Amino acid sequence: MTDGTNANERALTIIGDRINPGFKSTRVLLDAHDLAGVQALAVRQVEAGAAALDVTIGPRASEDPAFLVEVIRAIQAAVDVPLCFDYPDAAIQKVCLEAYDQDRARGRTPIVNSLAETRWEMTELAKIRPFTVILMASERLEDGVGRPNKSSAEIAGTAKRAALRLVREHGFAMDDIIVDVTVSALVVDTAGQNRAALEAIRAIGADPELKGIHISGGITNIAQQLPPKAADGSDLKRQLERAFVTVAMPLGLDTILATPWHEFAPLPEDNFVLGIFKQILPLSGTDVLRQVRRLYRPM
User: Fold this and answer.
1) pLDDT, tens digit, 9 for 90 and up, residues 163-200
2) Is there a domain that residue 3 lies in?
3) Is 248 inside any structural domain?
4) What CATH code is carried by the domain that includes residue 73?
5) What digits encode the pLDDT tens for the residues 30-64?
6) Residues spanned by the domain of 44
7) Which of 25, 162, 229, 287 is the one with CA 20 to 30 A from 273?
């Protein structure tokens, strides 16, 4: 796993998340077949500190795989960082891996996002070429049925079981595995999923059998559906992203899927948003909603 940092990060690897039609501006580029625009977006992310780039063109990938290949080749013509292919579908991942030019990434392997116990057949993709893998710890396979993980023990247990299996049965090194613990939107996290994710990060990071493994989360999720400004006038969404990173990095988080030109330096202890975020973490139910409102409603 290649580590990318700049002055605003401390040993934090950023996988740039902007080549995704979930962002309106990116959807416009993809709909217009504007490959030059996609290339410019790739360059901007790398210049802002991204060590790798997440790539998805959404459902169009299954309908128009030739366009997916065009996008991959255009991006690799513009930047030399590894690409992270964001599809839970093995057939689409096959297209991505076959299109990927490892020489253009300075010999570095691509990243498959994402494998899970419920999609174990995706390990067969390693026959095409070696890759780094993002392993989703948010779901497990139990008695042949996929089930969501809700507790920290379930998240950490799934991560360990799947990671050890990748190493022992499929030849992966721990350094080739990135566990995604899933960051939830704070405004709807009445069940304490972010608390469970942080506790799982601590458990995974402290497990000697998992030494060398990477731990990640999609940071953009945490501020979804919240207003732009905090009650103290600061940028609520960006401060909340930094608040999660501030709490999670000492526990073992070392990788994030995020917009690389956002700042991720740890917040000071007296930061308004960080303080309320820490107060929210132990809560559940409507207590969460009341505290979340304090983030953006002046008292």
Assistant:
1) 999 999 999 999 999 999 999 999 999 999 999 999 99
2) no
3) no
4) 3.20.20.20
5) 999 999 999 999 999 999 999 999 999 999 999 99
6) 13-218
7) 25
Short-list 118, 175, 108, CA closest to 142: 118
Distance CA 24, CA 54 (A): 16
Domain membership of residue 163 (yes or no) is yes
- Cβ(41)–Cβ(17) below 8 Å: no
Is residue 226 in some structural domain?
Answer: no
Structure tokens at 170: 């499929």
